[in-house]
Design goal:
Blueprint: E1 3-9, H1 24-35, E2 42-48, E3 54-60, H2 63-73, E4 81-87, E5 102-105, E6 111-120, H3 123-132, H4 142-155, H5 167-175, H6 180-191, E7 194-202, E8 208-214, E9 219-223, E10 226-230, E11 242-245, E12 250-255, E13 266-268, E14 279-281, H7 297-303, H8 305-313, E15 317-318, E16 323-324, H9 333-337, E17 341-346, H10 348-365, E18 369-373, H11 374-378, E19 388-394, H12 400-411, E20 415-420, H13 426-430, E21 433-434, H14 449-469, H15 473-494, H16 497-505, E22 512-517, H17 521-536, E23 539-544, E24 561-565, H18 572-583, E25 588-594, E26 606-610, H19 619-636
Parallel strand pairs: 17-18, 17-19, 19-20, 20-21, 22-23, 22-24, 24-25, 25-26
Antiparallel strand pairs: 1-4, 1-10, 2-3, 2-4, 5-6, 6-7, 7-8, 8-12, 9-10, 9-11, 11-14, 12-13, 15-16
Helix pairs in contact: 3-4, 4-6, 8-14, 8-15, 10-14, 10-17, 15-19, 16-19, 17-19
The protein binds 5-amino-5-deoxy-1-O-phosphono-D-mannitol.
5-amino-5-deoxy-1-O-phosphono-D-mannitol binds next to helix 10.
């Protein structure tokens, strides 16, 4: 949800161009392209040019449109210091005026450019105040309010007010080596409520870049003679593999000193007390975020699932010693043995994985469990009994709704676990312990490999708990043997892509679909429907197969596609009855069925087969044909699969 990239390199002295890789602009534009999956309705860039002026360029649409606009500005956009942004609209329509960077003018004429990810909740009151002080607004955004507030603070005599209680930052101010921009940013941020990751530059300080975060992610890549600030590692990894993950409430000042050298990065809190920071290795490689010959990230990510699953299970599924090894939970083994109930929380696809977690934990560990939308859990005054474990399920580890639920549960005394993909993300740091998905960066907006990773982690967690409570060693061994073979089963499933494409083509013109399943495959039906609607814009509903009779059956007419997850298991016969009911009303049946089940052919217009595994493990397989079906439907309908309309990869607003 919005991507930020900012750059300062050598040559940022009085606006002279230069830097480690030909100045700021190429780094900013490349970074924006890498971050485009976070938001892509408009984009913008501001650079302190070689003439010392702040030059801004914005465009509605993709980064490629901005790139063309920037090219038209020629030399004016050259420089070694700048900020850039790709937007997913929250406050105000998708217009050039609402695109970032936003600017504010200080009383002494200095101009500040700001990019922002997050939401300033008290922006309306601040806007009224700033208007009274003479600031003139040109956009509808909350970000412009913050830009003007920083400018307002910049224009004031701040020296006395901002001397913090101590630390290197305060000494900096006393020595007169601090930055007015940094000071103004701190003061402005003290006035705002909400979430933010921000980066700002000012034409009166053409050798300084400042940034800060609270609630939205921001990292600082440490390159040779340059710093690259970004929302995530994808915008940094081609320049450096070393980065600092900023903490909530931390402000960073990056500067080229008077000796022409890049100064060590300097961090403080909002009170100007110096803070520590750690430079660590980024957790992924450049090739993981490239298309690698695939037409879309979504297809690449579906196809790489056998490998990502192997990585997820490696070292954790121990078939030799008959156990699940989850190193991240070691420190909590005593608390986990005392656990009385589990709550799985997340949004979208992650919620669907959590729902499978609910079924798994009750079935395999006999622990009362429930899954809940994080957004609903947070605001319904939830009861957290002693012994409650909350599991935050998330690919990004930054989803605002899920974070809010996690905090609420922790405040009420729950033990907090994470099933998160992004290493070092807010959720991974705010939970008591967790199990990383280890599926690598997911770029496609439609989540695929992360879902399978989440389900795999929740399966292992349930087995881990089951073994400590009720499960026999024989059952444990049986599950481990099956789990170990899941990656090779997925490898055979993705081979069905062409068959699935052909069958999808027969029904892709239909605008209303149903997805039905029972038991473990009910959440898979929900996930199949979500996948189809978010990238193909076909209306689809998922529900328990039995629920159809209680109303939705009225929708079924001649040729309506109804996808059944009808694998062999305890509810197979009941699902077959539901198939009959749909057929009797003219529905067109697409069935996900177990290999060797030929009976189902008579009732179905298309069959996608999955290997026979225990019911608890079926979701790891049955979702794969549905991912491919959605992918092909979207491509056949001519949509941009990786950047579906109105969506963003990481939803960092509630
Ligand atoms: O990063 P998260 O897993 O927390 O994201 C949760 C949802 O926003 C996400 O799964 C969303 O539903 C995807 N578009 C699904 O494909």
């Amino acid at each position: 949800m919005c991507g930020i990239v900012a750059y300062i390199g050598l040559g940022a002295s009085g606006g002279a161009s230069g830097g480690t890789s030909g100045g700021a602009l190429p780094v900013l534009l490349e970074g924006l392209k890498r971050l485009e999956y976070r938001g892509y309705d408009s984009a913008g860039v501001a650079v302190i040019g070689s003439d010392g002026r702040l030059n801004t360029c914005k465009a509605v649409g993709r980064v490629s449109v901005l790139e063309a606009a920037v090219a038209r500005q020629g030399e004016a956009m050259a420089g070694s210091l700048g900020v850039a942004h790709t937007r997913w609209a929250t406050h105000g329509k998708v217009t050039e005026a609402n695109a970032h960077p936003h600017v504010g003018q200080a009383a002494d004429g200095a101009t500040i450019a700001l990019v922002h990810n997050g939401t300033i909740e008290n922006y309306a009151a601040l806007r009224t105040l700033l208007e009274k002080k003479g600031h003139v607004f040109t956009s509808e955004t909350d970000t412009e309010v913050l830009a003007k507030l920083i400018a307002e603070m910049y224009g004031r005599d701040l020296r006395q007010r901002d001397l913090g209680p101590g630390g290197g930052g305060a000494s900096d101010e006393r020595r007169g080596t601090g930055s007015r921009l940094e000071r103004a940013l701190r003061l402005a941020l003290r006035e705002v409520t909400g979430a933010y990751a921000v980066a700002a530059v000012c034409d009166a300080e053409p050798t300084t870049l400042v940034a800060a975060r609270k609630g939205s992610p921001l990292i600082v890549g440490v390159a040779d003679g340059a710093y690259v600030v970004a929302s995530d590692g994808s915008a940094i990894v081609s320049h450096t593999s070393r980065a600092v993950t900023l903490e909530d409430g931390q402000v960073v000042r990056l500067r080229v000193g008077t000796n022409g050298k890049v100064e060590p990065l300097h961090t403080t809190d909002l009170d100007n007390v110096a803070t520590s920071h750690e430079v660590s290795d980024l957790e992924f490689e450049l090739e993981q975020i490239e298309l690698g010959g695939y037409p879309h990230y979504m297809l690449k990510e579906i196809m790489e699932q056998p490998e990502t699953l192997r990585t997820c299970l490696r070292g954790r599924v121990d078939t030799r010693d008959g156990r699940i090894v989850l190193g991240g939970l070691n420190a909590l083994s005593r608390e986990l043995v005392r656990a009385k109930r589990f709550v799985f929380t997340g949004q979208g696809t992650a919620y669907h994985a959590g729902l499978i977690g609910e079924y798994l934990m009750e079935d395999l560990a006999k622990l009362p469990s429930r899954a809940t939308y994080a957004s609903e859990f947070r605001y319904r005054n939830p009861l957290i009994e002693d012994g409650t474990v909350i599991v935050a399920v998330s690919q990004s580890g930054e989803t605002a709704d899920t974070m809010a639920a996690l905090e609420e549960a922790k405040d009420r005394g729950a033990l907090a676990l994470g099933a998160v993909n992004v290493v070092g993300s807010t959720m991974s740091r705010e939970t008591d312990a967790g199990v990383y998905l280890r599926v690598g960066p997911e770029i496609g907006v439609a989540s695929t490999k992360a879902f399978v990773g989440q389900v795999a982690v929740l399966t292992m967690l349930s087995l881990f708990m089951g073994k400590r409570r009720v499960m026999s060693q024989a059952d444990m061994q049986m599950y481990l043997e099956h789990l170990d073979r899941i990656p090779e089963h997925v490898a055979s499933l993705v081979q069905q892509s062409e068959h699935i494409k052909d069958k999808t083509a027969e029904v892709v013109d239909r605008d209303n679909w149903l997805f039905l399943g029972r038991g473990y495959n009910y959440p898979v039906a929900l996930e199949g429907a979500l996948k189809l609607k978010e990238i193909s814009y076909i209306h689809a509903e998922g529900m328990p197969a039995a629920e159809m009779k209680h109303g939705p059956i009225a929708l079924i007419d001649e040729g309506m596609p109804v996808v059944f997850i009808a694998t062999r298991g305890s509810q197979y016969d009941k699902v077959m009855s539901n198939i009959e009911e749909v057929r009797a009303r003219g529905g067109r049946i697409l069935a996900v069925a177990t290999e060797g089940d030929t009976d189902i052919d008579r009732y179905s217009d298309a069959v996608f087969r999955v290997p026979d595994v225990p019911e608890a493990l079926q979701p790891l397989l049955t979702v794969v044909p549905l991912q491919l079906l959605s992918y092909h439907a979207a491509v056949l309908r001519g949509h941009d699969v990786d950047k579906p309309r109105n969506l963003a990869k990481s939803v960092t607003v509630e």
